[in-house]
Design brief:
Length: 319
């Protein structure tokens, strides 16, 4: 594995003292290629984070960034995933990607000195709902939940799901769910399982889970809670960036979230104009969207030189 870039030293709003940097990457299915481009640019410039927060499709790109491999993998992953989705179905595409990249991520994410890595999921809290999500009624339920996005109806989600954000660094007495090398594959798959299109059920420790996006498509709040001074939130759409599919909480550029200054990076136009939608994309569109993310990432670093990396940091030695 290649050496990861050193961590950044983050200036406070008055420039007086360094602090910790967090990066939260929103889900977006194939549109997540944009965020991967942004992270690749950060990697090229030596801008690393102390905490990475990911959800659903950003789990891979954020994980690769945390171990210093985002630029190396690049758009190739997304090209393969989009092509395979036409024949294999989304469940198998995700399982294949976990099989391919899981060893790299397990090796890097759990090393001493690695940044903290958060992977969001939605836990099914009601036994009857769990039976539905794991059975033949899952697809119909998933379609209804998507329709509910447009009506703003969060009723089923609030009654039956709860965000569960797994972390690679959980201290004794901390009640957050722990991500381990042993459960990584199961959590990574569960984080992506949209009920309308994923046919294979998701379980972690014998309990039912579904896609993070229903409850936590961008774990900005969870990253901010880790004591970071600056939080970079990366979206995949030009629209307002929200915590979940149902727009329960907006993540606002320039705001302060749990003491962290929020900086939002997102595309200027809908990636559909380039040929990339959530579930379908052309190869040319994916390449353009990735390059768009790269360019945005470099422009972001140029505009925030106070975030640039120090000579050494906590990621030293992560390979």
């Amino acid at each position: 594995m290649t050496d990861a870039k050193p961590t950044a030293v983050v200036g406070t709003t008055d420039g007086s003292a360094p602090g910790r940097l967090g990066i939260a990457v929103a889900s977006g299915m194939l549109k997540g290629v944009y965020g991967h481009g942004v992270l690749s640019a950060f990697e090229e410039r030596g801008l690393g984070a102390d905490v990475y927060g990911t959800a659903s499709s950003s789990g891979l790109s954020g994980g690769l960034a945390a171990v210093g491999r985002a630029r190396e993998v690049g758009v190739g992953y997304w090209l393969g995933a989009a092509a395979a989705a036409l024949d294999k179905g989304m469940s198998n595409v995700v399982l294949d990607s976990i099989a391919e990249y899981g060893p790299t991520l397990r090796e890097g994410l759990f090393r001493t000195g690695a940044p903290e890595y958060l992977l969001a999921t939605s836990k099914v809290t009601d036994p009857a709902a769990a039976e539905t999500t794991q059975g033949p009624g899952a697809k119909a339920l998933g379609k209804q939940l998507l329709r509910n996005v447009f009506s703003g109806d969060r009723g089923w989600v609030e009654q039956n799901l709860a965000p569960a954000v797994f972390s690679t660094q959980v201290a004794p007495g901390d009640d957050r769910p722990r991500l381990t090398p042993e459960n990584y594959d199961a959590v990574a798959y569960a984080s992506t399982r949209m009920l309308h299109a994923w046919t294979i059920p998701a379980e972690v420790g014998g309990e039912a889970y579904v896609d993070a996006s229903y409850t936590c498509s961008c774990p900005a709040r969870e990253v901010a809670a880790r004591g970071v001074g600056v939080l970079i939130a990366i979206g995949s759409d030009p629209f307002p960036l929200f915590r979940d599919l149902y727009a329960s909480e907006e993540i606002v550029d320039g705001s302060v979230l749990d003491g962290a200054r929020v900086l939002v990076v997102k595309p200027d136009e809908d990636l559909k104009s380039l040929g990339v939608d959530y579930a379908t994309a052309t190869a040319e569109g994916l390449a353009k969207a990735y390059e768009t993310g790269l360019d945005a990432g470099h422009r972001f670093v140029d505009g925030h030189p106070e975030l640039l990396a120090a000579p050494t940091g906590h990621q030293e030695g992560v390979a």
